[in-house]
Amino acid sequence: MKVRVLRNDGSKQWWQEFSVESSKRATVLDLLLNIRETQDHTLAFRHSCQMGSCGSCGIVINGKPSLACQTRISELKSETIRIEPLYSYPVIKDLVVDLNDFVNKHRSVKPYIIRKNPQELEEAPMEFRVTSAENMSFIQYDYCIMCGLCVAACPTVALDPQFIGPQALAQAYRYIADPRDEGFKERKAELDTSHGVWRCHFAGACSYVCPKGVDPAQAIQLLKREIYKRMFVRGPKVGAPVSVLAKQEKPISNQPKAPPLDFKSGVNQNE
Amino acid sequence: MEQLDYDVVIVGSGLAGLRTAIEVLRVDSGKFGIRVALISKLYLMRSHSVSAEGGTSAVLYPEEGDSFELYAWDTIKGSDFLADQDAVWKFVHLATQETRLIERWGVPWNRREDGRIEQRWFGGLSFPRATYAQDKTGFFEMRALYDTLLKYDAWDRFDEHFVTSLVLDGNKFVGFNAIDLKTGNMRFFRGKAGVIATGGNGQMYRITSTASSSTGDGYGIAYNAGIPLKDMEFVQFHPTGLVPKGLLITEAARGEGAYLKNADGERFMKKYAPSKMELAPRDIVSRSIMTEIREGRGIKDEATGIQHVWLDMTHLGKERIEQKLPLIREMGLKYLGIDIVNDPMPVRPTTHYEMGGIHTDIDGKVQSLEGPIKGLWAAGETACVSIQGSNRLGSNGTNECLVYGHIVGNDIYNYISNEKPSLPSIPAGKLESEQERIFSGLLGKESNGEDVYQIKDELKDTMEKYVHVYRTEEELKTAVKIVRELKERYKNIRLTDRGLKFNYNLQHALELGFLLDQAEIISLGALMRTESRGAHARLDYPNRDDEHWLKHTLAVKGAEGPSFSYLPVRITMWKPVARVY
Ligand SMILES: Cc1cc2nc3c(=O)[nH]c(=O)nc-3n(C[C@H](O)[C@H](O)[C@H](O)COP(=O)(O)OP(=O)(O)OC[C@H]3O[C@@H](n4cnc5c(N)ncnc54)[C@H](O)[C@@H]3O)c2cc1C
Ligand code: SF4
Ligand code: FES
Question: Where residue B391 falls among pLDDT bands split at 50, 70, 90?
């Protein structure tokens, strides 16, 4: 098996080819570990959980942003594997990229539960009541492991570095869709701008590469809808808070049901 | 060397580190202007805690029959009576409010029909009190804590900083030395208070469910600074690790009715736990699997030669598997190319959790043999209070992190607000000597010495072979001998990466140093403990011996390896009885 790695020492980059034994079960991460441990101790790449939960091992494999630990060699069906650092991030060394901008954008959308009465987040004599259906309205977006693949795949990020990007926008929606949250207004200023939700062209590349089925493209469309809705629609308030157990009679389900959308037409960076 | 000053310096951003940081910031709320540095060798949200699957125990609805007494009893009995009962009593009370608090911070707990929190059974519980968020409990907890921390301002993040040592001045905390992996430069973090929350050390074993970052660094830096490590010989092996690596197949599989079978296709658990069968406690199931393998009824994995048994779910039917065990099915397909609907899964015990750790008191304050270390705390898997004793119950790890994050955060706030300590002065030469050790001693050394990964490989094989589920005097002695040889060879270690930026070769060398010391402590502690208790099972001493061994082990670094002493267990509620299920 041949593995071609785009290496980088901070001042220059070059392709280096390694030959490694592969087995039926091996993942790309296994090959990289093998190379580092037996051939070249200087090869830099991140990894930790080895089970697709921690988001460390994002790289570009044969042109597609992927998790190294979740990509089996046998799936790739190629004799030579091409490995590059994630696109759209500054490279620090080899496959290690700078994620600072990524984590700052995540933070900029205020990704936490906001309550009108903040004291409600300091003591919890009882839980908020949430139905399973309400859980389902945001849990998919909460699955985000912050691997950054979606940003690497996004053609809009590549053109507009100020674009908040699919990961952070999906997280904004995750909290806005949460029946416990009352922070829509506080987040709106950040989202409702030309570098915010409106920048998205809906290429769908983010959802195509996302290893966790978060579907950021869908989240962004729902976010747009939410902004329109709350701007123009007066009447019964959408996203009313769920009150604490004692006060509440029956659980409310106020989340808009998303129409089924087709995201299968995502852009494959490989082609 | 760059020096940074903070009120509180926290090493580790798993559940324990994040929860501690939040607690300090939220109780202070700017009152004393406390500033926190949060250091992690990974990015903050990448800690091993994201892999926790099954649940977090808490008494939520006592009106339905659960109680603090029952929870404390389960924990203490599960610990085989090595847990300190006053600490367990405190812990079970605080777990309730922590579970509800993180609900308010966003954790999507599974719900009942009426919107209240759902709970389920877990091994060793006498009430279904494992609170869960799908089969990704730890992940969702980490998400909620990481995100919640982002709303505070009085802290700075130091992602990808590798802490190499702890600096004390006598019995007082001063700070931590760390390598900024991005630049390769050393930084010293000085603080009025320090917290070690660096997780476990499963990576000294070949087959483990832990992340590659679980290399026991926190134990290592404490031990090197003269702080005792407690009860390290109690290593938990989870019965069902997926061959070959040991990735976790959660207990929920057996909860849904999966069978364990040997090479003859026999459900062997009927010989060991005829009533509970596959759902007996972890230590018992792990021992049963290893007995089958030892007695020649295991199956040999073709590709690796690893001996295993089968976890068979084929009788459950496709529909049930798709509904209840989708993640396990995905893992089978992803890693082995097998579909559990049609084929059994190869599993064997996998190293999972370190019950022992840095010696602390009931409030998480780090203790030396002479008394408390002023200004230093430990929390989470790294700390040994002891809540877990000689065997942790499933679903009691994540909540220990949350509860002790809460306790330690408050304790630090009280310390800073009441005693108003000033920043400690740095003992002369301490920073220079660390820089010297790393840059000249490791990075700059020209030699044809030993390879890091070679020694680590041999260490993993040694621990897997000789310090496993079942232990004997002979095997433990062999382990001690090999580990000591490896330690000798380690002195002559050679790095081939001489660069500064992201020098993982250097980081792995430092981690290996910590692991070797701990392997020695674990093997020796196990050799000396001539009884069987919880996860420590001696074939040559099969019974629990309360008369001689109802006590904690303490290991302190000496010139020639660790020296051992013992500490009584605090028994405040229940006298030890036979542990039958
Ligand atoms: C697969 C698996 C499943 C589990 N499931 C459950 C479960 O269902 N329920 C349950 O209660 N428990 C479970 N546990 C146990 C529980 O998850 C852990 O005990 C717990 O998450 C440990 O958290 P922690 O905060 O102590 O450490 P970790 O999450 O391991 O975090 C350690 C932190 O320290 C940092 N660090 C380490 N060394 C250094 C250094 N030298 N310099 C700087 N930073 C450093 C790391 O970067 C990381 O941020 C499970 C464990 C495993 C392995
Ligand atoms: S949305 Fe998906 S691809 Fe993007 S960071 Fe999250 S998990 Fe990764
Ligand atoms: S190593 Fe954690 S996601 Fe791949």
Answer: very high
Q: Per the CB < 8 Å rule, is A25 touching B337?
A: yes
> Of B254, B471, B544, B552, which residue is the catalytic one?
B254
Please report, for residues A31, A132, B335, B428, the alpha-carbon distance to residue B252 in angstroms, rounded to integers and kept in the order given: 31, 20, 19, 54
What tokens does B130 get?
């494992």
Question: What secondary structure letter does DSSP report for B46?
Answer: G
Cα separation, B81 vs B93, in Å, equals 19
What integer pLDDT is reported at residue B412 of this predicted model? Answer: 98
pLDDT at A165: 97
Which one, of B126, B25, B23, lies nearest residue B77 by Cα? B126
**pLDDT given at position A267:** 33
Residue with tokens 């382990």: B479
Tens of pLDDT, residues B109-144: 999 999 999 998 888 888 999 999 988 899 999 999
CB atoms within 10 A of CB A225: 15
The DSSP letter of residue B541 is: S
Q: Can you tell me the distance from the alpha carbon of B351 to that of B215, in angstroms, rounded to the nearest whole number? A: 12
State the distance between the two ends of chain B, measured CA to CA, in whole angstroms.
57
For residue B182 the two structure tokens come to 């991005």
Look at residues B475, B485, B581 and name the one whose alpha carbon lies nearest to residue B526.
Answer: B475
Quick: pLDDT tens for B216-262: 999 999 999 999 999 999 999 999 999 999 999 988 788 788 999 99
According to the model, what pLDDT value does residue A254 have?
A: 40
- Kindly give, in sequence order, each residue whose CB lies less than 8 Å from that of residue A41, ignoring residues fewer than 6 positions away: B452, B453, B495, B496, B497, B504, B505
Reported ipTM: the value is 0.94
Residues 513-542 of B with CB under 8 A from A: none
DSSP-derived pairing of the beta strands B161-169 and B155-158 = unpaired
pLDDT at position B279, please? Answer: 81
**CA of B401 relative to ligand 1 center, distance in Å:** 9
Segment holding B530, helix H or strand E: none
Ligand 2 binding pocket, CB closer than 6 Å: A 144-150, 166-167, 170, 210, 212, 214, 216
The answer to whether B62 contacts chain A (CB < 8 Å) is no
**Residue A131 to residue A64: CA distance in whole angstroms:** 38
Q: Decide if B389 contacts B536 (C-beta within 8 A).
A: no
Mean pLDDT for B283-304 is 94
* Model confidence, pTM: 0.94
